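Handout, section B. The chain below has 466 residues.
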Amino acid sequence: AASGATLEIRADLLDGIWTDRAGLPSAAIYEHVAPQACVARADKLAQVRAAMRAHGADVHFISTLDDIAWLLNLRGADVDYNPVFVGHALIGLDHATLFVADGKIDAALRATLAADGVEVADYAQAADALASLELDQKLLIDPARVTCGVFHAMDPAVPRVEAINPSTLLKSRKTDAELANVRHAMAQDGAALCEFFAWFEGALGNQRITELTIDEQITAARARRPDYVCPSFATIAGFNANGAMPHYRATAESHATIEGDGLLLIDSGGQYLGGTTDITRVVAVGAPSADQKVDFTLVLKGMIALSRASFPRGTPSPMLDAIARAPIWEGGAEYGHGTGHGVGYFLNVHEGPQVISYRAAPGPHTAMEPGMITSNEPGIYRPGRWGVRIENLVANRAWLTSELGEFLCFETLTLCPIDTRCIEPSLLRADEIAWLNDYHKTVLERLSPLVEGEALAWLERRTAAI
């Protein structure tokens, strides 16, 4: 304003030129139910309302889709790979309103929501609800998780407190029952990967396999598993030089055939009713070079170092980044992405507030708390040559309490062999070899009851101790 500028957001300038613009998604919203939904909707609403009272707030507006889905134990299919739906929610101390497009919630589910004090209204009415807030109602709102239009819809005189959505913090801390379901989902996911890799090694050299084939086969293997819903993101399959691009995506117009010697990087995941998976493995094709083995082993050392870390409860998550990077830095290498991101519970595969990256600000909301699930995925990328990334998901667990404080450690959740053919053994210490052998022993014990035939033979072969 001091420069004579004004911000006008009410006119939608796209309307005049985007004549075939799609409307709101129409996929039905469904309920996430027990035993996978471990906390009742009413209990989650009570937790959020307790946080509202602590802030002195009377109402709370939420626009983040995963927060709404988590809070109301609902899921949808409006966003590819993420089981969420487009909507807003206005939470009062004794009532709540969910704003979604007409027709997305059937009469039975509407009645179920009503029993918990949740009214369903049309999506377009959210702005009117904000505009009708009284001046004696204090609004809790997270300015980082709403649009500018939300503030323009409100009377600026309405008192408000700005803070992170309570649901963002609550949903990041999985309960013991949720973690039990995640372990089950990880086992099913690992079994699917055993079937996939057994097929891959048997087909390699006997039929044409491309990066696109990898996506097709790995998705089909997961689809055969109980409680599987969909991929949790678009599969990344990069062979040699393509693997050096961390967010590479093969297309029908541009993709590689898997042949010759080198490294194949596969980053994939699944959505299950009891959890969300995200895993990266690099496997040998033919004979990996000595330099490729060195890079693979440095990345493995970094992943093991973080897996074994213990730290005070409340440690800002970005501070843990150097633990994974130290072995890679020692080898004269670095990588340009974060080491870890939070993961949802049958929700978004990327979830906050925690993130393991020294580029992130270590704010109070990044504190590591019990129950959080985070990826552990260091890497090394040689542009035009190859890429290495090894990724497991880990959960924050209580470790010990002493006169100096409460400490957490990581529980590794992901179950899938790490390709020992790519390792340079001379670079591993005895304790690192012991960790890897113990991990492979656990993988074999957990997955062998779920596979048979060639998949079981592959599992036994790839979990042999080194």
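Note. The chain has a mean pLDDT of 96. Compare this with the example in section A.
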